[in-house]
Amino acid sequence: MVLPGRPADLLGRRAECALFDRWQDAVKAGRGGALVVVGEPGIGKSALLDHMAWTAVGFHVVRAAGVEAEAELPFGGLHQVCAPFLATLEHMPGPQQDALAAAFGLRTGTAPDRLMLSLAVLGLLSEAAARQPLICVIDDAQWLDPGSAQALTFVAHRVGAEPLGLVFATRRAGGGLRGLQEVVLTGLGPGDARALLHSALHVPLDEVVVERIAAEARGSPLALLELPRTMTAAGFAGGFGPTDTAAVPGRIEESFRSRVLRLPAATRMLLLVAAAEPTGDAALLWRAAARLGIGGSAAAAAEADGLLSIGTRVVFRHPLVRSAVYHAVPPSQRRAAHRALADVTGPSEPDRRAWHRAQAAVGFDEEAAAELEGSAHRALARGGIAAAGAFLERSVALTADPAARAERALRAARAKQQAGAYDSALGLLTLADRGPENELRAANSELLRGQIAFARSFGGGAAPVLLRAARRFESIDASRARDVYLQALAAALLAGRLGDECRIAEIARSARRVPAAPVPRASDLLLDGLTLLIVEGRGAAVPVLRRAVSAFTTEELAPEEELYWLWLAGHGAGLLWDDEAWRLLATRLLRSCEVRGAISILPVAAATRAGLHLLGGELLQAASLAETAADVTCMTGAGPVAYAEVGLAVFRGRDDEALAAIRTATRDSMARGEGMALTYLQWAGAVLHNGACRYEQALESARLACSDSSIQRIRNWALAELVEAAVRTGHQDQADEALGELCGTTGPCSSHWAAGVEAHCRALLAVGPDAEDLYRTALGRLERTGLRAAVARVHLLYGEWLRRERRHLEARDQLRRAHEMFVRFGMDGFAERARSELSAAGEPTLRRRSRFGDQLTPQERRVAMLAAEGATNPEIASRLFISASTVDYHLRKVFRKLKVTTRTQLARLLRDGRPVPGVAERP
């Protein structure tokens, strides 16, 4: 099927057209999705998009395009897509409504987080698609501004159960487009290439010439139509001579440039103004042309040559024409065009006017620089961090005063860092450091360098830089110095033994010298507690750490405090063996990330909460969060080592999967210098091997984890694994030593978790009635926590001890409980160990695995878990970054697969593995 009136454009594209037709049918049927059309300039991407739009009967089709000259302006592409639906904004949830309104400058308010804005776009488009099937077509996606690109690709990855489709055309499918279904366009075959070439020729040509043109075009449709225009008369006559081996897009652009340079001067200038102002506003073009003394007749020659058309909109024949025009003229003419456009751009578009004025500037121009700074502030208010960085970066080049130049460079670097453009940020910091001496600016510059190092690796490279920054702040602002010391300590703890372990003590000693806050904040208490632990030990630290953890769990915190410090406060709770506080802190952090759309922190929050689910035997909940962490890491390209993924595989006891995950994550943690992750992975290996009765391997993994001498709660867990493995392998001395160290961490703490772990480890080393008393104590204390996996393991250990004592009846009771719990949790490795012990105790048991969760896809599991927790469909949609209709679709499938009819039944099944009767209700 070809586009009426333009059949030649789709020669040789029958398969691609058929694919688009099938895709449209799927979208209309409520199975939305995204396609990416990939190919070099001139290969026919736009022709395919035209075909798709023409044949989309019954759809609302919205078209947008990225423009190279606008790639730094905030949300230009997104506005093109969303503008037709903004009238329905008031029907959206409040936070999403505010995010879109702020991004498009419809109202003032807090700058929207990128994730919240992306969710809002998904909600807006899904709502529009519910009224009429919707297809969004985005051409030249490689030139979308960063904010638009992130939001639209986010939507593309999450459309599913709605009549909504997105099609992107791009030169390369990198970034957020990676992973979407691709349609890769290559050159036309020889037959189709010759047919297209003949369709464009008005005179017969020698077949030698035809073959030469076809060969040089390399199957590019645009080249086949354009290259004949560049052939000389001699070439047409015989086709002999050297073949130009330049890249086809370059040849095409050179062809367009040659045609532009042959035009009259006034026409060239009119084309230049049109190329410099990509909005396509014809009225604006003519006002700027008049400013330059160019009359209406100047357009005739360009239109006659087919380079552009001017109606209500200005449309270039191809993006390469715009590029050719802009670069074909000297810089002085480009500046004149931008100056004219700045003069005629109205006050309603101050950012566009400031950008044109900056492009027109020669040398320093303080007025233009100040205008750009104003644009940056407006961009930040709208959430356009990348745009703010671009405005400020250009303002630096226009600033003459060294001090002002340095300050603007620092602000530009901060915006670039927040946008993830770390190399640009570091370059701007170099400029900032060249300014006149200023201690506050130098401290802020050092701090930003440390934050960039931390964001890049989560490892030890950040700690020394942040330490230097903290010391600089001591003489400027003691409160700020304490905050930066806490950042430095966090970086050093994450680096652990892969960093300079002496650095942790150095940071702690330096921080202790900073005057205490008159009214300590939660973060001040946390810094004091952690540094006391390092410098003076647990006795001095535990009371202060308790106050810090209590403050974080009970006090109202600023958003920045929650996002920056809740994970570290959770680390403090873990050091106190306080599982209840850790759970509260981890849940609060996760909810804070979801509500505020803090996408950069979300993988850490999800992995932390997943860890608690694992210890609680809630593997399905952990799997849901592991998948969330992986999704966001994939979207952003940044995140911590895959803690949740590894932990899930280990607790499931699936050897091949777990060992592969540990190997991959170990390589990653070593490369990044993330020592805390390495300790976690070695502890995870010890758990895996203990579960499978491979005690020698468990002992080695636990030894490695315990070799980390930094203050790691994970090391404390590894001590318990070391006790079990050492006892089982007959290494009594190692077990005694590990128990002593473990008691040093549990003794000062009064939690049920600490007492339970200590009792069960003591039981492993005890004999006779003492061992039994200790096992019973361990069960009594651990059953008062939410750590059901630990309870099941003590039942297993107690049962194994009873069997060795030849008390088979009592052993069977303990082992049966352990086996049932492990099967229900999905901890297959430990379940098999319990089954074997139960059989040895005289109760043969069939091998069982908990499989009801395996019936579900990962997304269905996530929807099911949140529904079981009581979340509504809109709440689930917000937390999983999908639309409400997609939630409804998945939930219906979950009910059907698991044979339940109510959310109550679903909750019981996911919690206990056993459905119960309930009253039928709609999902």
TrEMBL record:
Domain (HTH luxR-type): residue spans on this chain: 849-914
Gene3D superfamilies with a match to the protein in the record: Winged helix-like DNA-binding domain superfamily/Winged helix DNA-binding domain (1.10.10.10)
SUPFAM superfamilies: C-terminal effector domain of the bipartite response regulators, P-loop containing nucleoside triphosphate hydrolases
UniProt keyword annotation of Nucleotide-binding present: yes
UniProt keywords, alphabetically: ATP-binding, Nucleotide-binding
Keyword Membrane appears in the UniProt entry: no
InterPro entries recorded: AAA_16, P-loop_NTPase, Sig_transdc_resp-reg_C-effctor, Tscrpt_reg_LuxR_C, WH-like_DNA-bd_sf
PANTHER family with a match to the protein in the record: TESTICULAR SOLUBLE ADENYLYL CYCLASE (PTHR16305), TRANSCRIPTIONAL ACTIVATOR DOMAIN (PTHR16305:SF35)
Protein name: AAA family ATPase
Natural source organism: Streptomyces kaempferi
